[in-house]
Amino acid sequence: MSxxxxxxxxxxxxxxxxxxxxxxxxxxxxxxxxxxxKPDGSFLVRDAQAKKGEYTxxxxxxxxxxxIKICHMNGNYGFVEKYLFNSVVEMxxxxxxxxxxxxxxTLDITLSNPIFCPYDDDDAQPQGDIRFLSDEFIRxxxxxxxxxxxxxxxxxxxxxxxxxxxxxxxxxSVFCNAEKMFRSQIALIESFMVKPVNVGGGGGGTTxxxxxxxxxxxxxxxxxxxxxxxxxxxxxxxxxxxxxxLKVHLESMHSKMETLDLxxxxxKENEQLLERQINxxxxxxxxxxxxxxxxxxxxxxxxxxxxxxxxxxxMGFDQWKxxxxxxxxxxxxxxxxxxxxxxxxxxxxxxxxxxPTGTFLIRVRxxxxxxxxxxxxxxxxxxxxxxxxxxYGFAAPYNIYSSLKKLVEHYxxxxxxxxxxxxxxxxxxxxxxxxxxxxxxxxxxxxELEFEQEQECLAQESSELMPPPPQTTMASSAPIPxxxxxxxxRSGHDTVDATLGSSExxxxxxxxxxxNFSTSQ
Length: 521
Description:
Keywords: SH2 domain
Structural class: alpha/beta
Region (Disordered): 457-521
GO molecular function, one term: 1-phosphatidylinositol-3-kinase regulator activity
Mean pLDDT: 78
Number of helices: 13
Domain SH2: 21-115, 338-431
Distance between the termini: 92 Å
Shape: elongated
Radius of gyration: 43 Å
Largest sheet: 6 strands, mixed
Low-confidence stretches: 1-9, 121-127, 199-221, 472-516
């Protein structure tokens, strides 16, 4: 009894598993039944039954299934010990465009029609495994994007070939018209190249130059006949030269027409290949989009929003998790801590007295819309929040937030300075959270300030230890203008003392911002 082949570990199996044409551990009989009746170029990839870690490509060619072993060794993949590709996915993608005849002359075909494995929610998405779902969502989204980009490139190439073929057909028409003209000229010349029966014009003229005429009339006839013969001969030679030149041009034209016909034939084959690939890609894109939608549905079942999904796609699951945990621990998520519907301007100022920079609340304005009341640099500022058809915001075109909560979450990590130069802060602390946790917040801010001061001291000491830059002598130098830099984090720690007074000032309009805040009464 022969020993079983040692399994081969495939580190890239996870990437392969996300491909829709990968069917996993199925038998040859199952693969045959799946491909039965499918057109040539249809294919799937399955695990090799003889050796774990290797794979089998099953392909339809001439109405029959062809089995091709995909070997794996030292991280490379290929057919029959030819390891040319870094992964099975890379290899399959290559042969969707290039013919397999470079591997086997009898297989002049591309992998044009992938057969997708049916989607199984239970097997592909274990319950409660949000990391797995996120990873599969990212892979599926990236693969869909790659396929869409590849499809766009193929469509562009297809349209370019089609336009080129229209132009080449015009060239063919020109060649055909030119050929007709040349053939007409050749036929016309040949019709004039028929020798006359009698070039002398009389009975004795048939033997010009053999007999001397006895009368003047006879001599004249013979001389005229000789002249006509010489002229006719000259015309014949001239027409013969023209005829030869026309035939040379016609032959050259035929050669160019054959070259053009071969080129057009080649481009038509490319056009047909691209058309097959485009048509074969469409069901694959539909399947990938369906998978992506199912991942989105499952992830939203865990309470994830569209913003969460976008962050996962952009930053990955781990970064999103850190962001989510940080956001979840923020008091901003509790609207009751910052949205005081019935508070008036005077009430807001009373609550914000002595609060640190970034402490805020939102209230309803008597004149309509909403107002943000916020402490910044020992001054209380009031700004209008507009409610429009496009959403909430401080000014067009930034009225884009679907709710006040979304607006607060955004400006909890983005400075208001982007709208108004005087508000160098974020929405740091909801006002009622400040009222309930004053000592804790002040202690935390003091620790953060001390840490920043320590970091500045360390940086200053490091700079003092570095050798001074070489001195250069300059005849004269103008002072270099410096750009004002605001430290958004330090701005929140400038007022640690809880006994700071309130300055009842309104927000002055920014001098350069294109989207200034409107001050609220």
